[in-house]
Amino acid sequence: MKRTLASRCFFSILLFLTLPISASALTIGGYEIPQIIPATSQHAELKLNGASMRILYGVVDTYIGKLYLENPATDPDEIIEADEFKRMVFKIVMKRVSGRRIAKAMYEALQLNVSAEQALKLEDRLQSLVEMFDRSLKKGQESYVEWAPGEGTRVVINDELKGVIPGKDLYDSLLKIWIGENPVGSTFKLQVLGVEEYQAPRSMRRRGRR
Prior knowledge:
By secondary structure, this protein is of the alpha+beta class. It has one domain (34-206): 3-Layer(bba) Sandwich (Chalcone isomerase). 37% of the residues lie in helices and 29% in strands. It is built from seven helices and eleven strands. The protein has a seven-stranded antiparallel β-sheet. It has a two-stranded antiparallel sheet with strand order 1-2. Strands 7-8 form a two-stranded antiparallel ribbon. A hairpin with a 2-residue loop joins β1 and β2 (31-33). α3 packs antiparallel against α4 (116-132). The longest helix has 17 residues, at 2-18. The N and C termini lie far apart (50 Å).
C-alpha cells in the first residue's frame, strides 16, 4: 500500500514538472504574450519561440516582435531551413506608425542579411510586400508575415489578409532580419530565439514600466 502511494506521488510530481508553467507567462510592455496560437484550417498550431521589444535609437519602443513556430528551436539555421508554418508578429506599441515605415525598415534590414544577387532576385517581391503595408497601425494592433508551406508568405495587416507572395527564399530572408547574422538587434535576436529570457530594457525600467 505504501509502495503504491509512493508511486502515485512520484508520477504526480513527474507530471507536474513536465507541464507548462503558467507562472512563466511572458508579458512585454504591459501586453501578455500568448504561448500558443491554436490550429485553424489555415495553419497548424503555432508555439511561441521567443519575443522581444524592438527599440529604435535606444529610446523609442516601436513594436513587440513575436516569433511563432510549429516546432520551437534555438538554432537560426534550423528555423530558417524548416519547411513548416512560421509566423513573425509585429505588435505596435507606438501611438501610431505607418505600415509603409515598418515595411521599408524590413526592406533595409533585409539588405544587410542577403547578398546583392539575392536582393536583386527578391526585389519585385519585396516591393509587393512594401505595398501591402498600406495603412497606419495604432497602438495595440498587430500585423504578421507567415510562411504557409506549399502556398507562400501570407501578409496580414490588422486581421486583413493583404496577399500571398510565392517563394520560400523570400520568407527565409525575412527571418534573417530577426535571427540572421546582422539582426535588428543582438539582444532582440537572442530573445526571439528563446536563448535569452526577456528583460525590460533600461529605458523602460527608468520609466517605471517594469
